[in-house]
Design brief:
This protein has helices at 36-48, 121-124, 127-141, 143-163, 169-209, 226-239, 241-247, 268-271, 274-296, 313-322, 337-343; strands at 2-11, 14-19, 25-29, 68-75, 80-87, 91-95, 98-99, 112-115, 214-219, 258-263, 266-267, 301-305, 328-332, 347-352, 355-359. The chain is α/β, with parallel strands linked by helices. It has a 6-stranded antiparallel β-sheet, with helices on one face. Helix 5 crosses helix 9. The chain is globular. The mean pLDDT is 92.
Length: 360
């Protein structure tokens, strides 16, 4: 899978841009605050239907303009697709020229993996960052998972709203049954994803560190089958009911689950050094690339937003040794001669004040 063409209009600080990336490594080089990250954000928007930086799509429209456009042409092993997103009074998405009603239809058309300085927080920040990592990967792999997660979140919101009105046990029981059923699907799918990701992350991490053994495990409601998870979830909801009433919030379920990340028995989330946490975050992203390739048949597009400056020379070398297998888009302020030599042939662009120009 590769992007053949990216066109944007009135997006962030861009009046317009029309870019033809190469099939390998693409460098977008420029000073800070010139619009490099905005380009990656537009690609990510066409991939998952939302920005990685803000939940408000209105902020993506250029100042004093009423409408923004992002259009991406994607080439696959067999055929290709186009994605068009128009932002004005609403967000409108079309695939191959046909408008879609549900954003879930967009999932998987253009698969991407984003790695930015913010993504380094996957390991050291709270559980929400790690759940987001799992959910974005799974939504690109499975539309069914996207819809199950959407249904779960809607039911959860209704239950939390109900808790504010001092509901009876009978009323809560109705919502708990629905929550446990949808939640079991989410938990089972997430746990399966982590189990498949685990050996890939272990292999990548050993390559990066040379010695450490990385172990991933999903922390959530126990159970092997969806039925067993549903039963255990329902029991946990009943047990937590009094507490939920006091705080008017649901305290158990996939919205509270976490991804445990250990190396040689050390919980990296709490006790890992900064170097260990960065190595683990890098391992997770590269393992995600491999898993998406295995399960979809094609590598996704890798988006690296100014992460080379965040990694030391050793980790840079390990990252660069992987990215030549797929299309990669890299933003940076500058590159050393050593890094350029390791990258080999690249397609390079300069970015200045919302203007992109290819460098011959």
């Amino acid at each position: 899978m590769r992007i053949e063409r990216l066109t944007i209009k009135n997006y962030r600080n861009y009046a317009s841009a029309d870019i033809m990336p190469g099939g390998g490594v693409n460098l977008f080089v420029g000073n800070n605050a010139q619009g490099k990250t905005n380009l990656l954000e537009s690609i990510y928007l066409a991939s998952v239907g939302r920005s990685a930086r803000t939940p408000r799509w209105q902020e993506l429209i250029k100042w004093n303009e009423s409408e923004a456009l992002v259009r991406v042409w994607v080439r696959k092993d067999v055929g290709g697709d186009s994605v068009e997103i128009r932002l004005d009074k609403e967000k409108r998405v079309a695939i191959n020229g046909l408008p879609i009603i549900r954003i879930g239809e967009l999932m998987g058309v253009l698969k991407t993996v984003l790695f930015s300085p913010d993504e380094l927080r996957i390991v050291k920040e709270g559980p929400g960052e790690r759940r987001r990592f799992i959910d974005i990967a799974l939504c690109q792999l499975s539309k069914a998972y996207f819809y199950a997660l959407t249904r779960y979140n809607k039911i959860l919101a209704q239950r939390n709203k109900l808790l504010k009105s001092n509901p009876t046990d009978e009323t809560l029981e109705v919502w708990d049954m629905q929550l446990a059923k949808e939640g079991a699907r989410v938990i089972k799918t997430r746990r399966g994803f982590v189990e498949r990701l685990k050996p890939l992350a272990e292999t990548v991490h050993r390559d990066i560190t040379g010695t450490e053994t990385l172990v991933l495990s999903y922390e959530g409601i126990s159970g092997e089958s969806a039925e067993e998870i549903e039963s255990n979830f329902a029991a946990a909801l009943k047990k937590s009911r009094d507490r939920d009433r006091i705080f008017m919030l649901t305290h158990v379920g996939p919205q509270r689950d976490d991804l445990a990340i250990t190396a040689d028995g050390i919980d990296l989330r709490s006790y890992g050094s900064q170097g260990q946490q960065r190595s683990a975050a890098l391992s997770l992203k590269l393992a995600e690339m491999e898993l998406l390739k295995i399960e979809s048949g094609e590598y996704p597009v890798l988006l690296l937003d100014d992460v080379l400056s965040e990694l030391d020379a050793y980790r840079q070398t390990k990252l660069l040794s992987h990215i030549k297998a797929y299309q990669t888009v890299i933003t940076c302020t500058s590159l050393s001669d050593d890094v350029r030599e390791k990258l080999g042939d690249v397609t390079e662009f300069s970015v200045t004040a919302g203007t992109v120009k290819p460098i011959k």
